[in-house]
């Protein structure tokens, strides 16, 4: 079932050129990322308000770091996922563009008397992903570069955040005023190659970091997409929508589904977010769902798929039906906890 927050605009289906993949795998490249939107929160109560709504600790967010977080329905299902950080007095939330309007409207309904205002600043900002051998180029723009994952630096040219490596390549997100970022990017044209934004989608998948887009909004509790492992849930903070269900799943050992990294010999028209998966031994009911998918350099599609843990123990997992294309399960770049 599609979430009421879903946009009716379909996701673009893109297969990058081979040279786009080569740029980030053999050199350095950047992609302007229209698939992301930005919600800015301002006001004396902005941090307190978001702390009461999101799965992570926003109240104690410092100026040197960024955090993953989620926004859940009362049933504990993720409506959206964010990368969240502070820049000046603003708390900035990066999320999938196709759920932004609905999420912002829903959050704004609960501001009530809090001194907080949410604004869509996507048109004022440029979101850029950089991957590969990019540190030398970035050092020409920023006085210092963040070394740890989810560490950030601020500069007049914007915020630079180190995000998890993918396929052994360094990655950074650069978010800043559109004109300033465009000018700086132009000066780096001799060092970095512009690539398709779909390359960034593939890198996110290889990093094992799911993104909640409209096709899968309201389908998963955070643990199903490994957000507890990725640091997107703080289990010591106070209440937020769905918190009781998320906590119960964590502490009662009821996590029977996780997100796996996989590849499949199929096209993006069928290996798409929201597509159901079936196990060879149980063809009558789905065993999982694709969360994110992107064209892979070697052909076919790489994907993140939420799957019953039992379905990964034996037999095979297939796309669309029990006799559909077979998923090849790949190792995640991080370890999952042993489930009871």
TrEMBL record:
BP-aspect Gene Ontology terms: iron-sulfur cluster assembly
The organism of origin for this protein: Paraburkholderia silviterrae
Domain of life: Bacteria
Protein name: Folate-binding protein
